[in-house]
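STRUCTURE REQUEST FORM
Protein name: DNA-binding protein
Source organism: Liquorilactobacillus nagelii
Requested output: structure tokens
Priority: standard
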Amino acid sequence: MKWTLDELRRNCTEPLALNETVDISSLIKSKNESIISVSPAKINGFFALNQLGVLGSFKIEIKLVLPSTRSLQPVATQLNFDINEYYVDQQTENLAAFGKNDVVIFLADGLLDLSEIICDNVLARLPLKVLTPAENAGKAVLPTGKDWQVVEEGHAASNQKSIDPRLAKLKNFFKD
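Status: completed
Returned output:
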């Protein structure tokens, strides 16, 4: 679904309500090849024209299958989030009119593409740490090799309480 800003300015005297299911799987996979699969995104929201530009306010629900960041096993991930963004022409100069927390997106060609909006927001909200249920419960064996092993961040700190003997003398350096 695509609209030009001029088209929305001419025809949107009332907010344009959207309750759609949008398939963005090919678009999102072209931007992030590590994503295994993507279900169609459910969109519920509206575009509204005001003095600042076009306001897009949406609730998005989407299911993705991502590789585990530890074992690369497929993990089903559900994302539910809200979007509140203003879409304006590239020539807009009065950014002071927007609030400090407003998200303003410049449209270079004046084209508002709902698929691109959804795709960009999903990619921005991908979790950095994705674990299988077994990995999350701590039941999975962490990888090891010759002279190395993977240790979780919290466990590494608790296992290394000893002070390096070469630095032990510095312990009293700043004492008066």
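Reviewer notes: The beta strands are 2-4, 16-22, 37-38, 41-49, 54-67, 74-89, 103-107, 111-113, 144-145, 148-149. The chain has five helices and ten strands.
Form closed.
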